Every structure is written in structure tokens, then in C-alpha cells.
Amino acid sequence: MRSSIVKKLLCCGAKSFPSESSSDDAVPEGHVRVNVGKDIVCKFEMEANYLNHPLFENLLRLSEEEFGYSYDGALRIVCDIDLFQYLLHLLKTSNPSAHYMELPDLISKFYSSNATHLPADQ
């Protein structure tokens, strides 16, 4: 079952979020803009269908608890930027382990592996 925040996002659609950027900075169809980080925030664009993944739902739920549902034009996910990139990497490469992990398992695996498996360009 999808979380309420994912339902709100899918109901509104990613393109309905207000944006301060120009049309040259438009989010491609099927993607959503995401601001990731606690103190330092990095901007990402990711496939919107990743929001349906239980790990993203858990990250969104944690962020909603901290920030509420007001996102200033992009979703805000409060987590380590490298952890977010690790999760994106698992999903982009269709790594089967991502489908069986709970959020604490993902965090544990990420920190125990020191993220040495991430490509340098990510």
C-alpha cells in the first residue's frame, strides 16, 4: 500500500510543483526533482516510479515527519546524500537485493560496505 505522501505526489503530478527555475531547467517527463541532505542539500532528478519503492516511501515518511508536506518545488528527502545515491544505484541496476531490504538493512549495508561499489560519476 502506498504511503499518503506518495499518493499526494502522484495525485498532483511532478510537473505541478512550483518551480523558480527557467523552462530550460524543466524536469523531464516521468521524473521528479528531489532535494537530498540534512545540512548540505544536493538536487537530483530521478524516475518518478522509484517513489513507489518501499525504501523511498520510508525515506519520504521520515522526511515528512521532519519537514511536513511543504517542499518548495521539489521533494525533500533528509538522509545522507551518498546513501541516497546508493539506493538510486541499486534501483537503476535492478539489483534484486533492493526489493527485499528494509530501510535499516539498507543503511547498515551501505555503511558496512563503505559504498566502494558506487561508480565515480555518481
Automatic annotation (TrEMBL):
Q: Name one Pfam family in it.
A: Auxin_inducible
Q: Which GO terms describe its biological process?
A: response to auxin
Q: Which InterPro entries match?
A: SAUR_fam
Q: Which family does it belong to?
A: Belongs to the ARG7 family.
Q: Which PANTHER family match?
A: AUXIN-INDUCED PROTEIN-LIKE-RELATED (PTHR31374), SAUR-LIKE AUXIN-RESPONSIVE PROTEIN FAMILY (PTHR31374:SF216)
Name of protein: SAUR family protein
- Originating species: Quercus rubra
